[in-house]
Design brief:
By secondary structure, the protein is an alpha/beta fold. Helices cover about 40% and strands about 25% of the residues. The structure holds S-adenosylmethionine. S-adenosylmethionine binds next to strand 4.
Length: about 290
């Protein structure tokens, strides 16, 4: 497939631009892909919680973006009476179910008092570039949960890898180079590059949870898989994978690690290589959840 075939794929993502200290950062929303990868909107035992007991369940999505996860959730689980989406900037659709509420709220700023101990389930998904201190985020979110409530964190690792070789460099040199530069640039700006792998430990150390579980799944970066289901997920991922360089261009350039023309060359090589899919690359996505004591 060539770059010109891209329009045929359309985009499964909603995109928006943020102003950051480093300039505009386009964020991509890949929730539907990861929901498919994890076979559902929620880990199984949390699903059961929403289906059993009282029919007055309250759920919060932190950094809710488009709000699509919450809207899908209330459609699937009728026991949810209150679904609260918070974000620093609101981009939810005009029309949404009456039990969904969107609030402009910085998760790092004080919460309204009546939110304390209010929620059965809280999710925070793909906040890695916005949150530098995950242990402190976890402590803040725990205060909003009822005893026995669940906190779910979904985050990607920050480097992709090949499923056919231990050396990404050998089979996908452009992806390896692009990954390295992005990694170094994000690290320079204080992003917790190992957040996904560290969060289970942060949760266990906080001593607020009865139980902490984790699962990691490999998201294919393009349609290279022989497994039809993974191939579909990979196909839907192509626009996201290809848009990724633009999401971090300004951050990488601000880091001073490469010049603009070097960046454009690396980007072009990375795109060509991703479309060919020869390295069979994946990005591990982690879902970690804990049950509050
Ligand atoms: C990559 S998007 C993910 C959106 C959504 N969770 C999803 O999975 O599609 C990150 C979201 O977190 C929001 N965000 C970043 N920092 C935040 C903060 N301090 N408080 C609230 N929301 C924040 C951003 O505005 C953005 O909508």
């Amino acid at each position: 497939m060539s770059t010109s075939d891209l329009s045929k794929h359309g985009s499964s993502s909603s995109k928006r631009t943020y102003n950051t200290d480093q300039g505009d950062l386009i964020m991509i929303f890949i929730y539907r892909n990861t929901a498919d990868l994890f076979d559902g909107l929620l880990p199984r035992d949390i699903e059961l919680t929403l289906q059993s007991g009282s029919s007055d369940k309250r759920v919060m999505d932190v950094g809710c973006g488009t709000g699509k996860w919450l809207i899908d959730l209330v459609e699937k689980y009728p026991n949810i009476t209150e679904a609260s989406g918070i974000d620093i900037t609101l981009i939810h659709p005009q029309q949404f179910p009456s039990n969904v509420k969107f609030t402009r709220q910085d998760v790092l700023k004080p919460f309204p008092e009546d939110w304390i101990g209010r929620f059965d389930v809280i999710q925070a998904r793909f906040l890695i570039t916005g949150i530098k201190n995950f242990p402190s985020l976890l402590e803040r979110l725990i205060t909003l949960l009822k005893p026995g409530g669940y906190l779910i964190i979904v985050e990607p690792e920050t480097k992709s890898h090949s499923t056919i070789s231990d050396s990404l460099e050998e089979v996908s040199p452009a992806s390896a180079k692009f990954g390295d530069i992005s990694y170094q640039a994000m690290k320079k700006f204080g992003i917790d590059m190992d957040a996904a792998k560290n969060i289970p430990n942060y949760m266990r150390k906080s001593d607020s949870f009865d139980r902490v579980e984790q699962v990691s799944k490999d998201l294919p970066m393009s349609d290279w898989s022989d497994d039809p289901r993974l191939n579909e997920i990979g196909k839907a991922q192509i626009p996201n994978a290809l848009a990724y360089p633009d999401t971090i261009r300004k951050l990488v350039l601000a880091s001073g690690l490469v010049s603009q023309s070097e960046f454009e060359t690396i980007k072009k090589d990375y795109i060509d290589e991703t479309l060919k899919g020869e390295g069979k690359t994946v990005l591990p996505i982690w879902t970690i959840w804990g049950k509050k004591k």
